[in-house]
Amino acid sequence: MTTMRSNFAQTTIRSPGIMSVDWEERVDFTRLREYRLSRVKQALATSELGAILVFEGSNIRYMTATHIGTWAYNKTERWALITRTGTPWIWDFGSAAKNHRLYSPWLMPAQSKGGNTGLQGAIAPTSGLPESAAKEIAAILRDEGVANMPLGVDVVEMPLLRALESNGVDVRDGQQVMLDAREIKNCDEIMLLSQAAAMVDGVYQDIYEALKPGVRESDIVALATKRLFEMGSEQVEAINSIAGERCSPHPHVFSDRLIRPGDQAYFDIIHAFNGYRTCYYRTFAVGRATQAHRDAYKKARELIDTAIAMVRPGASTGDIARLWPSANEYGFNSEMEAFGLQFGHGLGLGLHERPVISRLNSMDNPVEIKEGMVFALETYWPGGDGHSAARIEEELVVTATGAELLTLFPAEELVVTNAY
């Protein structure tokens, strides 16, 4: 491993372990559930909405603290509702409702029910399932005194949307209200995010030791996935594993390409611990590094360090985006095509929460940076050889005085693996 500067990455953010113990205060899940629900109620109270109906998995989990496996994400097969005056309702996939009545005592038993709107159309709308769900939702809005107010919805299938409207429900965008609720993390969320990042720290050590000629990009994906599950990961959502001539432009997908001597290679590890996600890039050179590799890495590091130095309460996402080069300065015709390369995004139960930072959106529509936000900053720079590139990402917590890192695997300088 290359020699690092003395001011290597450190943090004061705790990462105490994945178990609950009686001898140390760790994540308090009761406090976590109560905090998240209070944030939803507060965001709802300050909006124009009388209630929020959510189908997206991270919104359901934030509101109800229920989870039935990653297979259920983004299928709109379960949903949750909360009104200004009530407590959460959850409609679940089959027997999960009974399970939650047994093991999730923070829910009202009568408000944990089975539900089905048609499995994204696999059961045709002529079954009456969307209409039945809409009537039940409309009845709750009436019973809880908010039928004359708009209903916010995050995502919705067209048959249910039309059924809600035909039952007199004024449907509005509810996703912004949920993002308002989720943007500030409490101490328990931050600990879970820290623990998730610590797991990836360890995986990068394994990658450092394994990365050599003859290993495929897909082999690294398999190694990382296995190690994350061994350490207690709930979900390995995606792993980018990209090397050699595939580095520029960034393809956002791994392949079976063999790693070769002198390759530059970068990786992104996205997984969840108790629902809380990482997005964590690191770049290596395999065996030896060219000057093009080092120059690209130095530029990517400068861009991310400058952005981190700007992070503080009261600054804006526009302040950060202005520090980054325009798309045409690193080989792209538009900010749309360069989106996601000089980039920032909130982290929590979702991978892309508020704030989203880029030159595409942030300078014209800046978002205030606030204490308690957690987000990732990621930078990219193509190599002068025309095919290599460097990619760096750091996750951070916004504190009263600046930023604290969650991502600690060495990245101050380009790391060379299995040096010759």
Describe the structure.
It is a single chain. With 420 residues, this protein is an alpha+beta fold. The chain has two domains: 50-173, Creatine Amidinohydrolase, Chain A, domain 1 (3-Layer(aba) Sandwich); 187-417, Creatinase/methionine aminopeptidase superfamily (Creatine Amidinohydrolase, Alpha-Beta Complex). The chain has ten helices and 16 strands. It has helices at 29-45, 57-64, 96-103, 129-143, 158-166, 175-182, 187-210, 217-231, 291-310, 317-321, and strands spanning 51-54, 79-83, 89-92, 112-114, 151-153, 171-173, 235-243, 264-273, 276-277, 280-286, 343-346, 353-357, 374-382, 389-398, 403-405, 415-417. The protein has a six-stranded mixed β-sheet. Strands 7, 8, 9, 10 and 16 form a five-stranded mixed β-sheet that branches. A five-stranded antiparallel β-sheet has the order 12-11-13-14-15. Strand 14 (389-398) and strand 15 form a beta hairpin. The longest helix is centred in the middle third of the chain and has 24 residues, at 187-210. The chain is elongated. It starts with 28 loop residues before the first helix and ends with a strand.
Q: What gap, in angstroms, lies between the N and C termini?
A: 11 Å
- What would you call the structural class? alpha+beta
Number of helices: 10
Number of strands: 16
Q: What is the spatial order of strands in the main beta sheet? A: 4-3-2-1-5-6
What are its keywords?
alpha+beta, five-stranded mixed sheet, 10 helices, Creatine Amidinohydrolase
Topology of this protein?
Elements: H1 29-45, E1 51-54, H2 57-64, E2 79-83, E3 89-92, H3 96-103, E4 112-114, H4 129-143, E5 151-153, H5 158-166, E6 171-173, H6 175-182, H7 187-210, H8 217-231, E7 235-243, E8 264-273, E9 276-277, E10 280-286, H9 291-310, H10 317-321, E11 343-346, E12 353-357, E13 374-382, E14 389-398, E15 403-405, E16 415-417
Parallel strand pairs: 1-5, 3-4, 5-6, 10-16
Antiparallel strand pairs: 1-2, 2-3, 7-8, 8-9, 8-10, 11-12, 11-13, 13-14, 14-15
Helix pairs in contact: 1-6, 4-5, 7-8
